Amino acid sequence: MNRRAFHRAPEGERRQDLIEATLDCIAEFGLKGATLRQIAIRAGVTAGLVRHYFDSKDQMVAEAYRTVIASLTEKAEAIEGNPETRLRDFIVINLTEPVANSRSLSLWAAFISQVRVDPTLAAIHREGYLGFRNALETLISDFLVANGRAPDGDACRRHAIAINGLMDGLWLEGCLAGDLFRESELVSIALTSIEAMLGLPLVPPHARTGNSN
Amino acid sequence: MNRRAFHRAPEGERRQDLIEATLDCIAEFGLKGATLRQIAIRAGVTAGLVRHYFDSKDQMVAEAYRTVIASLTEKAEAIEGNPETRLRDFIVINLTEPVANSRSLSLWAAFISQVRVDPTLAAIHREGYLGFRNALETLISDFLVANGRAPDGDACRRHAIAINGLMDGLWLEGCLAGDLFRESELVSIALTSIEAMLGLPLVPPHARTGNSN
DNA sequence: CCGCTTATTATACGCTTGAATAATTTCTGC
DNA sequence: GCAGAAATTATTCAAGCGTATAATAAGCGG
To answer: Which pLDDT tens digit goes with each residue over B51-79?
Structure first.
C-alpha cells in the first residue's frame, strides 16, 4: 500500500496554509465551490486534515473571514505621520493594490452575501465594519482640527459617512472593472472629490510646505 | 396513492414565480443554500418542475440575475423631467427603498461573488454595469449643460466615476447598516456631497424657482 | 363529457459533500 | 534508535445535491 508521503508542518503554519487555501478557493470558485476537498488540494494536504485543525468547515471559513477583515483594516491602522498626511495615505492605500483588486472583491462579496445567513459571520462583519468606520472618522476629525476647523460632531459624522461611502464605492469600481481606469486614476478622483467635499486641500506627504489654507 | 393536488399556472406566471423564489432563497440562504428543493418549496411546487421551465438550475439562476439587474436599472431609466431634476431623482431613487435594502445587497453580493466563476453571469453583469454607468454619465452631462457648464469630456467622465462611486458606496452603507442612519440621512449626505463635487446646487424638483446659479 | 396535450408530481439515480473513524507515518524526548 | 504522542492519510458513511424518467392530474377543444 503506497501511502502518500508528508511532513509535519511547524506550529501554526499548517493552520495558516489552510486558511489561505480556503480564501483562494472562495475567491476562485465562490463559497459554493470552496469544498473541503478543493481546499485540501490547494493546501497540499488531504481533506481529513482540516478537522484536525478546526472543529468544522464552518469554523475554518469564519476564521478565514477574520483574516480578510484584518487584512482590510490592519494596513489602514498602521498609517503613521501627522494628521494632515494620514488621511491622504489612508485613501491611497485603500484604492490601490493589494487592498483594491478583484480577488479582494470576490472574497468580500462572498462573505457579505453570507452575513445575513450566518450569525457568526455577522458578528465578525459588524466588528470589522465599525472599526473601519471609526478609524476613518478619527482620521477626518484629526485632519479637520489640524486645519483649524472646529470638529462639529454632526458635520464630522456626515463627512465620515460621505467619505467612507465614496471610498467604498471607488474601491468597488476599481475591483469590478479596474481595466476601465487609468493608473491611479481612481486615487486622483477620490482625492479631488474629497477635497471638494471638505473644502480643504489634501497635501501630498512629500510636498508639504506649510501652506495650511 | 394520495397525490398532491395542484393547478396549472397561467402562461409565464410560474416561470416568474420560480425566479422570484430563487431570488428569495439566494437572499435568505445564500447561493449555497438556494437548492432546487428549497426554491421549489418557496414557489409552492415540487423540485422537478424547475426543469420543465428551465434547461438547468444554472440557467434559472442566470435568468434570476437578469431580473435583479433589471430591477436595479429600470427604475433609474424611467426617470422623467428636465435635466436639472433628473439627476436628483436618480440619486434619491437609488438610495431609498426598494433599491436600497439588505435584501438587494445580499442578492447583489451573491451574484458578484459568482461573476468571476461563471462566464454567463459575467456577461450579464458587464452589460448591466455599463448600462448603469452610462445612464449616470448622461444624466450628469445633461445636468452640467443645463447649468451652463461646458461638458468637458474628461471632467465629465471623472465626475461620473466619482458620483457613481459615492452612490454605490452610500448604497452599500445603507444596505449594510441602514439602522445606523437616520431617515433619508444618506440621501441628504449624497446630495450635499455631490453639490460640493460639482460646485452646483441640486435643486429639489418641487422648489424650482429659476435660480440657475 | 371525452380524449389529448402537457403541466405537475413522484421516485430513483449517480455524484459530491462534510464528517467520522481507522490506519499509518512523522517527529520528539530520552 | 526506540517508544509514545501527535499529525496526516485513507476510507467509509449518511445526507443532500442536480438531474432524469415515469406516472398522474389538470385543463382544453371537440
So the answer is: 999 999 999 999 999 999 998 888 878 89
Q: Which residue of A has its CA nearest to B175?
A: A112
Structure confidence by residue, pLDDT tens digits, A106-150: 999 999 999 999 999 999 999 998 888 888 888 999 999 999 887
Integer Cα distance of A213 and A106 in angstroms = 41
Domain segments of chain A: what residues? Answer: 10-54, 61-201
CB contact under 8 A, A186 and B161: yes
Mutate to test the interface with B, among A132, A197, A198, A200 (most CBs of B within 10 A): A197
Contact residues, chain A, for B185 at CB < 8 Å: 158, 161
CATH topology of domain A10-54: Arc Repressor Mutant, subunit A (1.10.10)
Chain A contacts of B172, Cβ < 8 Å? 165, 168-169, 172
**What percent of chain B has pLDDT above 70?**
95
The pLDDT > 90 percentage for chain B reads: 68
Tell which strand C nucleotides have any atom below 7 Å from a protein Cβ: 7-11, 16-22, 24-27
Classify domain B57-201 at the CATH topology level.
Tetracycline Repressor; domain 2 (1.10.357)
Residues A61-201: name the CATH superfamily. Answer: Tetracycline Repressor, domain 2 (1.10.357.10)
